[in-house]
Amino acid sequence: MVEEPYKVLLVEDNPGDARLVEIALSEPGPVHFRLERVGLLSAALRRLEKEEFDLVLLDLSLPDSQGLETVVAIRKQSPQVPVVVLTGLDDEQSSVEALHMGAQDYLVKGTATGETLRRTIRYAVERRKIMADLKALRENGQDNESSLKHAIAAYRTMVDAKTTPFADDIDQPLRERRPRFVDDIAELYGELLEEYVSNGSPHGVGSRLTHLVQRLREESAGARDVIDIHLQALKSRLAKGGLEAPKPLALNAQIFAVEVLGRLLNHYKRQDLMQTA
């Protein structure tokens, strides 16, 4: 069965940069794309109002909008659509801040190969689907302990062999290699988890969540390690009484875990890119 192509809205005013994206997404591969391009934020908002897209590729420097306000406007118009930011070499900090504002990922223009671009789009779309599935479980009251494992399995089907250690957890779990680190990071994880559950989104924990993911990456944490830390933090928080209503909490907490996993996966993906460049 042929899968429906991903509908991608490219918001880019530079014809040369737009052409490179068009060429990259037209190359053969397991996923197909249907690309539509606009050059203004105002045009993008009108398109998103009329039609659903699977993802927005967003330049932060547009004639009618600059920087993070562009991300905010897109997220306000279509909060359910994943956004991948396109940025210049001298503007990477803004891209990191864009992640705090709800963007799924970012790419630096001129450094990403066609394969990297296609993979980034696929990860972002699938990650959003996983999050939506978990939220649907919460809304339907179908809480179950296997849903997080299901999400992890879905993540592993996305990653390719290059993206280690996420794809292939190394033999010795992080808990055995660095038990003190796991205890420390579980405490930080628990603090952020509690705030996330209270706020219902990662926006309030932005920079600290980035710091947590960086520390996990430095220790070559895999998906299994993240789940270990997640369960330890959840158990500790519940024991302290810092969190209430275990059943709804379980799914909110799983969504947070998926957020952490997605960001860690993005780090490893960039590492792959740097090693193969």
How would you summarize what this structure contains?
The protein is α/β, with parallel strands linked by helices and 277 residues long. 61% of the residues lie in helices and 11% in strands.
What does this molecule look like?
The chain is an alpha/beta fold. Helix content is 61%, strand content 11%. The strands form 2 sheets. Strands 2-1-3-6-7 form a 5-stranded parallel β-sheet, sandwiched between helices. It has a two-stranded antiparallel sheet with strand order 4-5. α2 runs parallel beside α3, α8 packs across α10 and α9 crosses α11. It is globular and about 55 Å long.
Summary keywords:
globular, alpha/beta, 7 strands, 5-stranded parallel β-sheet, about 280 residues, single chain, 11 helices
Mean pLDDT: 79
β-strand amount:
5-15%
Q: What class do helices, strands and sheet pairing give?
A: alpha/beta
Approximate shape: globular
- Helix/strand order, N-terminal first: EHEHEEEHEHEHHHHHHH
Q: Give the low-confidence spans.
A: none
The number of E-state strands comes to 7
Largest sheet: 5 strands, parallel
